Amino acid sequence: MLIQFKFQVEIIMFNIFYVKISIAMVREEIISWLKDNPSTAVDLSKQFNRSQIGIEEDLDHIRTSIRDNPSIILAIRPAMCLMCEYIFSTDRTKAPTKCPECHAEKIRLPSFVIQDK
Ligand SMILES: [Zn+2]
Q1: What pTM value is reported for the model?
Q2: Which domains does the chain have, with CATH numbers?
Q3: Ligand 1 center to 96 CA (angstroms)
Q4: Among positive and negative, which fits the CA dihedral 35, 40, 44, 46?
Q5: What separation in Å is there between the alpha carbon of 15 and the centre of ligand 1?
Q6: 88 CA distance to ligand 1 centroid (A)?
Q7: pLDDT of residue 9
Q8: Distance CA 77, CA 71 (A)
Q9: What percent of the chain has pLDDT over 90?
């Protein structure tokens, strides 16, 4: 019983480890893709077959993790309201859904590119 439990814990630990490794690999692939292909979270979601929420988490993580990198930055073309041209802050990588000025929902999504410093 105890041995079986220990075995199951080891399988779970291995799976967590494996998921962490594969997320890190996807993030490396996203960084290399964004060097040549400016993309929105929707573009990346299709390219990497990953949910938009997952991609937005990846972009947040990438932005934080390369902050101290001396050679590259994650540049963001901000989201913009297509009705009144309100420009959204780039503080968040998550796509806004509604304009705070005119309340329209036609928003050009933010796009991301990795550039040399
Ligand atoms: Zn607007």
Answers
A1: 0.80
A2: 2-116 (1.10.10)
A3: 11
A4: negative
A5: 45
A6: 10
A7: 81
A8: 19
A9: 68
